[in-house]
Amino acid sequence: MRIDVISLFPALFPGPLAESIPGRALERGIAKLHSHDLRQWGLGRHRSVDDYTYGGGAGMVLRPEPVAAALDAVRGEDGFVILMDPGGERFTQARAHELAGRPHLVLVCPRYEGVDHRIRGMVDLELSIGDYVLSGGELPALAVIDAVLRLLPGAIDAASTGEESFVEGLLEYPQYTRPPVFRGQAVPEVLVSGDHAAVARWRREQALERTRRRRPDLLVPAPGATDSGTTPDEHMPGAVPAGVDAGTERDRRAGRRGRGRRDDDADRWDAGSGPSDTGAG
Hints:
Layout: E1 2-7, H1 20-27, E2 32-37, E3 50-52, E4 60-62, H2 64-74, E5 80-90, H3 93-100, E6 104-108, E7 114-115, E8 125-128, H4 138-149, H5 158-161, E9 181-182, E10 185-186, H6 196-214, E11 219-221, E12 235-237, H7 246-256
Parallel strand pairs: 1-2, 1-6, 4-7, 5-6, 5-8
Antiparallel strand pairs: 3-4, 9-10, 11-12
Helix pairs in contact: 3-4
């Protein structure tokens, strides 16, 4: 996989992606990461990339010409372009799996007040990771790249990603390790019983209960089920997000079994936050 990032702060990459699982994936050549300074395609002697918004209002807006030129230069024939934006689709594990299957990703990281609306017509997907304000799209992009890199074949033991939170649309079950008793709290007996079927049932029950308590929005009633007559196993976890082919996702699961100022350092940007997520889970 090739990943290109277009940013006003390309030095932020690879950053934390150089460590641990994503770092090993990059070191082994499983993926290649390239960051590009948007000012390389800036306008005029000062390499300008932003301007005041038509109609008035606070903050600067990224102009379309530099972004268009950058995409023309790095997109290639197979590039899938993602704009980190507060109005984008909620980033999910299902979407991470879908992106991991693509050969080339291009992530655009806005700054300032946002982007000229005409830029949206140049991208394939808008993504958001949380309802909060960040200084730019770089941190959200790092989160998306990390989530994708660890899913690439060879990046991590496949068994490690098979039962994680959100894989089946549920939060992961509780995990325990040594010692068997810590400050009066003992490991559940079923986990040391040697009964693999009982362990599997316990984990499923715990995952359902944990999801019901913490993220009930992930539990979707099964077709034909009524509100009053459902049981925990009559719920279908994890709706497939918009833009992900439902048939592809079913096959995958089955087979597994700134509001800113012109000063870059002082600006504030709403992408990576906002009403439909660019930020945190």
